[in-house]
Amino acid sequence: MAKNRPGNSPRSAGDAKQLALLGGKPVGTVEQPVYPYFTKRACQRVMKIMAEGRVLGFSRDVPEVREAEAALSRHHGGRHVLTTSSGHSSLQMALAGLEIAAGDEVITTPYSWGASTSCILHQNAIPVFADVNRNTGLIDPKQVEARITSRTRAILPVHMYGHPVDMSAIMRIAARHGLAVVEDCSQAHGTTWKGVGVGNFGHANGFSCMGGKQLGATEAGYMVTPDQDVYWRACLQCQHNARSTEPGFSDALRPYIDSLLYTHRITAVDAALLAEQLKKLPREIDARRQNIATLRLLLADSKYLAWPKYSKHGNPSYYMWSMLFRAKQAGVRRDTFLKALQAEGLAAGSYSPSPIPSWPRLHWQTYKGPRTVWHENLRRARVDYRKDAVPNAEYAINHGIQLIFRFYKPAPKVMQRIADIICKVESNIDSLRQYERHPQLYANVNLHTGTAYAPASLANVGKRPK
Ligand SMILES: Cc1ncc(COP(=O)(O)O)c(C=O)c1O
Predict the structure, then answer these.
(1) Domain ranges across the chain
(2) Does the reported pTM lie above 0.85?
(3) Domain 40-279, what architecture?
């Protein structure tokens, strides 16, 4: 580590060297910036749209929708772009545009945000889970190929935390088996694989542009596809008048225009915000990369946090910062280490609770909660996710430590604080081991703030209180 490790001087309550979890003084909160950051011009544009009463984003006849889709299309090398109300809707419309529907199987990852699975379920299709690479947590192309059946129609990889999946391998497998590819790029704006932006590989791909994402509006998303027919078929499902006034609309689709729609439209406000946000995306991604590079230097000597071994062909955009915790070497549980980081002021956590196939809402056999649209479909297909073994996803989830990473400007001081916190916790790993072995010694500690620590001694363990 760049800074000296805290020494082993005697500890007392409020001591800066003592872990905050055990009553010491916290290093200090790692503040995330206000996010998303909208320029003055973006805010003025929103005010104007509101004042003019033009908030609806019905079609490209709305100038803001036309502008946002044209800008995003340029960003994706001229591909067709359909802005939507969310990332989920962009993915569902990608599947709809590819005509993936009841009974079709779509192979996806068990380690993700649930929307990359629920978009499949909402099309009445069947998610099939292929295990991930144990180290990176990204879907493993070999496992994908092993799960292909005669019912498989598509592969839906997710570029988790802004790290790209091996798209060369996924596209090769898809071509070999005649399958469609739907990239979930919700966490990966600006990420590249072999120099090509994600969202430019698959047949129809989705991005979330909700306010927490690298390209964040309020709530929004967009679908991108090289195939005009996919674009029109998606429009037919979710857009007012199916956007049929645009040039090129297929006459074959005209009889099917109606209002049996998902209302997955963007608003004019969000379209304007997207157009403005896109202008500063490259600069902000550069800063994220720079901050991670700083952190990498500062944490070069970290004993218990390992950088996952991502491919050299990827250039990530860091939606989140994700590390693997070396639980065996540390001799403490990941969650204990996390508690210690949190008490010092670092809001790190574990992104995913468990692999998606283990989630109770997928287990129609035993489910007792409110009815869902997908149970009947899964029952007919006799899918039993309780039998799914995805040991690598389990490992990656249980050993992962993630931090939401909104540092869109160079922030060396914040990176230094993050490193200081990790350094302090690692230097005190012995006291964390003791804390795990003898929790009764720390019974008075508020686990969130570390306050009210009553110094205790191992010599008193097992003795009756006087
Ligand atoms: C991987 C992934 N897919 C899909 C989504 C869904 O996006 P939205 O919340 O905009 O519907 C998210 C959102 O966080 C996501 O992280």
Answers:
(1) 40-279
(2) yes
(3) 3-Layer(aba) Sandwich (3.40)
Helix (H, G, I), strand (E, B) or coil at 47: helix
Residue 267's Cβ-count burial label (10 Å; 0-12, 13-18, 19+) is buried
Task: Assess contact for 329 and 306: CB atoms under 8 A.
Answer: no
Question: Residue 185 has which token pair?
Answer: 């790029």
Are the beta carbons of 68 and 207 closer than 8 angstroms?
A: no
Mutate to test the pocket of ligand 1, among 113, 117, 121 (most ligand atoms within 8 A of CB): 113
Q: How many CB atoms lie within 10 A of CB 251?
A: 7
Ligand 1: centre distance to CA 202 (Å): 17
CA of 113 to the centre of ligand 1 (A): 6
State the residue for tokens 């249980």. Answer: 398
CB of 181 closer than 6 angstroms to any ligand 1 atom: no
Distance 307 CA to ligand 1 centre (A): 24
Cα 61-66-70 angle, rounded to 5 deg: 155
3-class state of residue 322 by DSSP: strand
Query: Across the chain, what does the average pLDDT equal?
Result: 93
Q: Which of 73, 49, 75, 72 is nearest to 62 (CA)?
A: 49
Residue 16 binned pLDDT confidence (cut-offs 50, 70, 90) = confident
Among candidate residues 17, 202, 235, the one with its CA nearest the CA of residue 116: 202
State the CB neighbour count (10 A cutoff) for residue 381: 14
Check pocket membership of 108 for ligand 1, CB cut-off 6 A. no
CA dist., res. 149 & res. 458, Å (int): 59
Query: Which atom number of ligand 1 is nearest to the Cα of residue 208?
Result: 10
- β-sheet bridge partners, residue 139: 132
Give the confidence band of 14 by pLDDT, cuts at 50, 70, 90. low
Best residue among 160, 161, 208 to mutate for probing ligand 1, ranked by most atoms within 8 Å of CB: 208
**Structure confidence by residue, pLDDT tens digits, 119-168:** 999 999 999 999 999 999 999 999 999 999 999 999 999 999 999 999 99
Q: Under a CB-based contact definition with an 8 Å cutoff, are residues 302 and 426 in contact?
A: yes
pLDDT of residue 460: 42
- Are 160 and 101 a contacting pair, CB within 8 Å? no
